[in-house]
Fold:
Amino acid sequence: MVTTQLLCLEDGQRARDLGANLGMGYHRSLLLRYLDTFPRPEGVPEWPELLPDPTPDEIDAAIRAGETPYGTPDEVEVAIRRYADAGVRPSGVRVAVVDDGSRTSRPETIETFGKHVLPAFDTDPVHRTTRQREAAS
Structure:
C-alpha cells in the first residue's frame, strides 16, 4: 500500500500555488520520523524542528519528475502510474486529499481525480464487490 498526498485540479498553476501552503513539510517530517528502525535521513531536522514546505518551483519540479500527484489530471496520472508500474495495485494507493483551508479544493480534487484519472486505472466496468456478491450467490 502507498499513502501520499493528492492535489488534482484542472488548473495546474493553482495546484502549484496551493501545494506550497498545505503543510507538506509537516507531513514529510512525520513520515520520515514514523519508523525508528531506520536512521534519520540527512537534512531531516531533529524533533520538534520540521522540514520546510516546498516552494512552488520545487513542487513544479516534483510534478515534472512524476514524484508527486499534484497538478492537472494528466500530471497526477503520471505520478500514480509510477506506483502502478512498481506493482502497487490501484486499489492499494490511498490518498490524503489536501485542503486549502477553505474546503474548496478537497471536493474539487476528489471530483477531478475520479472523473479524469481513476478511469485510466479502473478499466473494469463491473465493480469488484459486485463480482464477489455474484460469485457468492
